[in-house]
Amino acid sequence: MAGGENVHHCQQSNHGGGEAGSLEQVIAYKPDFILAQDRQFVASALEQPVWRNVPAISAHAIAFAPRLPFNWGDRPPSFMRAIGVQWLANLLYPELFPLDLRAETKRFYKLFLNVDLSDANLDDILR
Fold this sequence. Notes:
Blueprint: H1 23-29, E1 34-36, H2 39-47, H3 55-58, E2 62-64, H4 81-92, H5 101-113, H6 119-126
Parallel strand pairs: 1-2
């Protein structure tokens, strides 16, 4: 929905998805952007020299979707995808989808969760 294309096409082995791939596959795909499922992977991929062969990593085009109170783009499927698709479209195509993420996130949480986010709360959600 955000306009990106998943380059990892595979047969799903279970209902949950999240199929594993090898570093060699990722290097061969030459992705422009990586959306990671593990926050620690983001940090380690940016630090480990072996990942520098991946265009997205060398460009620091890697992100971990916010997950509070629910994942913004994965499971469980929820209304949080409404903010998640905006976040991802802005990451992938910032010139086409400009977004004041901090202001929009505060507005979204107030509208859908009746929560007034402090700047510290927002930092925790977006890091």
